Amino acid sequence: MHLLGVKLGAPRIRLAIAVLIAILGVVTVVGRASAYTDDFKHDAHISVIPELWGTHSLSIRSIENGLMSGTTECHEMSPVFIYTLIEDEKALGANAATVDMPYDGPDGYAECQPVDPAAYESTWVSAIHQVGLRVWFRQAWNTWAAYYGEPKFSYATSPSVPYEGAGGAADVLSGADTGSYLAKTYHFILDHASYFANGDIFTPASEADGAGIGPNPGCAAALCEFPSIPEFNRFLRDSLTVDREAFKQIGVDVFVGLFGTSCEYLDRLEPDTVTAMGIVSTDCYVPSAARLLRDLDTMHETYGSPVVLSEWGDIWDEAREPQTQDSVSQALEAVVKSPFVGGMGYWQGIGGPGGEGLIDYPTLQITSAGYSLQHWYAIAARSCDQPNDPLTVWAEATATALDGDPASWCRIGR
């Protein structure tokens, strides 16, 4: 879970926030791979592995700021602190950093009263851009999953906030739908054009499948956002459609997608959705590097596309050394050496109770785990413009999925 900055179940969220604030002081296809046609599944791209380093580049080398940006709306970190933190993340070899705060304005918080959420987000965005990194927007509405004390609203609640209307993307673009989550996110982009710069990444709804897909025994209590897998897929595809159109309207070249779907349940993405995405991303938390690589390999084989590991972090070792450093190093080595993983987001810069942080709070000193990531991000930083680079080959073969621009995949990482 990004917005709350910790990887915990819902019953422990409020307790986790209280603990973290105290610490801070101021603060349907599984087994159906054949459904993906040979025309789409460009497996030829994995046959050429570059000689240099014995690895390929990670076009996206990101660090998550879930705790520091997502949970501090009502006890804001200072601009100097934010800028220094992002400088540290750049020093670790990142070329992107995330903002994870709510989309909501000041009236969207039940348990506290933020001063000016838009200005606070602008502070984060400006710091990331000023340091020379890309911003990866991974946000959510507070009522999407009951953040900041807000109730969860879905298509089935009263009052309701549907994921999208019956008219889908067309109704959003025509103005007929302004109240669904699909429409609200589209208008967020239009209303906050100053946030975005060429080369940024925008994820409309991170871990969207985690919001609940029915029919499911837990839906009655958990209020699943989607009644079925087909409707979940419709939302993903329509999000890509309307949000790409929003960025065209404001004249900024932002890559839309990288939803961070499950690496365990591979029956959730339909072939048309994978085609529309172009790149499948996953938030995948497994403690073993071998298991991580196996899960990513299975995703690649199932979906027939390159994979971005949009979230992974050592949330098990609680900063014990050398266990944490070793776990980070082993996982990063596996990811960097994979011929089809094209990007990664490490969870997270300043960590929570899991001890996964790369940077210490409050000293802002790099941890041992941070130096491990720095080593592998440096190895992965070479250009993806080489003619035989696997991802360049793939991008040329699937240019249509990337709005007709073969260079899109390489460009988003810079």
Structural key phrases:
414 residues, alpha/beta, TIM Barrel, eight-stranded parallel sheet, 14 helices, 8% strand
Structure description:
With 414 residues, this protein is an alpha/beta fold. It has a domain at 10-105 and 119-140 and 199-211 and 258-412: TIM Barrel, CATH 3.20.20. It is 36% helix and 8% strand. It is globular and about 55 Å long. The model is unreliable at 8-55 and 385-414 (pLDDT under 50).
The amount of helix comes to 25-40%
What is the residue-averaged pLDDT? 83
Quickly give the CATH architecture of the domain at 10-105 and 119-140 and 199-211 and 258-412.
Alpha-Beta Barrel
Low-confidence stretches: 8-55, 385-414
Into which percentage range does the β-strand content fall? 5-15%
How large is the count of helical segments?
14
- CATH fold description of the domain at 10-105 and 119-140 and 199-211 and 258-412: TIM Barrel
What is the string of SSEs from the N terminus onward?
HEHHEHEHHEHHEHEHEHEHHH
Tally of DSSP β-strands:
8
Shape: globular
Rounded to an integer in angstroms, the radius of gyration calculated over CA atoms is 20 Å
CATH class of the domain at 10-105 and 119-140 and 199-211 and 258-412 reads Alpha Beta
Structural class: alpha/beta
Main β sheet profile: 8 strands, parallel
Strand order of the largest sheet: 5-4-3-2-1-8-7-6
Cα distance, first to last residue?
Answer: 26 Å
Work out the oligomeric state of the chains in this entry.
single chain
